[in-house]
Write a structure and sequence with these properties.
The protein folds into two domains: about 5-150, Trna Endonuclease, Chain: A, domain 1 (3-Layer(aba) Sandwich), CATH 3.40.1350; about 155-190, no CATH class. About 50% of the residues lie in helices and about 20% in strands. The chain is built from seven helices and ten strands. It has a six-stranded mixed β-sheet, with helices on both faces. The chain has a two-stranded antiparallel sheet with strand order 1-8. β6 (about 55-60), α2 (about 65-80) and β7 (about 85-90) form a beta-alpha-beta unit. α1 packs across α3 and α5 crosses α6. The model is unreliable at about 30-40 (pLDDT under 50).
Length: about 200
């Protein structure tokens, strides 16, 4: 049977399926809107666990030195823009570009030696060879670190700071509260706490 040439996106979907089989909830090739930056993020694979921590995988075919540098830049950007606190950069070997069928591609990917690098807010990591199982292990270790490290504390601090800023804005601009009440459809009685208690 002749081989079929596969696009990088197909390999990303196949990787997401293999991760899913190994218990990692994975969504490939999605569009995620960023409200804060008013942009659209296009991560290759989003991986989430039950704690709701999102991690991203960026995949690229290896074939040149530029591929690794470009992938590393994209992975760093995902972390810097807040798309994810951790991004796994995965270089696919060139031989995964073609296979006899999609099932054969999945089989080949499951056995392939991939080049992997874990990028986080604290580290750019190092390139290392590994398999899909090594990606799963790297994701699990990253989850454990995120939950135990200051990343969670820092995120809580940022959220608290945002809440304080919003509360200050509401306190300094009384008409803002009224506009929000109306926009949210909150009845006046529920919002009016200035009764004549004495």
């Amino acid at each position: 049977m002749p081989k079929v040439a596969f696009r990088e996106e197909v390999v990303n979907v196949a990787l997401a399926e293999l991760l899913e089989q190994r218990g990692m909830l994975s969504v490939p090739e999605t569009i995620r809107k960023s409200i804060a930056r008013k942009t659209r993020d296009l991560p290759d694979i989003i991986v989430a666990d039950l704690l709701g921590i999102r991690m991203v995988i960026e995949g690229r075919f290896n074939g040149s030195r530029a591929a690794g540098a470009s992938l590393l830049r994209d992975a760093r950007e995902r972390v810097e823009q807040g798309v994810s606190p951790v991004c796994l950069a995965v270089l696919y070997p060139p031989e995964l570009r073609s296979a006899e069928s999609l099932p054969r591609l999945r089989l080949n990917l499951g056995k392939a030696t991939l080049t992997i690098r874990v990028i986080s807010e604290n580290s750019d990591g190092e390139w290392a060879d590994g398999t899909v199982d090594d990606i799963v292990e790297a994701l699990r270790r990253s989850y454990e670190l995120l939950v135990s490290e200051d990343v969670v504390v820092a995120a809580v601090g940022e959220i608290a700071s945002g809440i304080e800023t919003a509360a200050d804005l509401f306190a300094r601009t009384p008409s803002l509260s009224e506009r929000f009440r109306q926009a949210l459809g909150i009845p006046q009685e529920a919002n009016d706490s200035s009764g004549d208690e004495g």
